[in-house]
Amino acid sequence: MGKSKPKRRMTKQRKKILEILKSTDTHPTADWIYDQVKEEIPNISLGTVYRNLNVLKEMGKIMELNYGSSYSRFDGNPKNHYHFTCVGCGKVMDVDEPIHVEINHNIENKMDCNIDHHRMEFFGQCSECKNE
Ligand code: ZN
Ligand code: MN
Q: Distance, CA 42 to ligand 1 centroid (Å)?
């Protein structure tokens, strides 16, 4: 009995935003996406971009990477995967490592609960920054 999601149309703006997100692996901010969309839809506002990002997230088409006080990043790949953030240059990269589901099972056993998913973030110096 899953919650039924409201039906959402794939509008032209939404499609464009999704296309831009899928075409990059840099996990951009809303501002960066806005700059890209503006080149094709010049009269679009930043607010509209934010709204559409939220709708796409609700639709399960994209993922928001929330880093607390700093700007959210967006990911065109909605499937759970790990990220590495370089504290030197600030880039966010995909980590080529399968999701460790055994952690979920350990905690389910310890707490007698059901785990849907977990978040794990990696921080450090990227291959370029660590040599500086
Ligand atoms: Zn770096
Ligand atoms: Mn990613």
A: 33
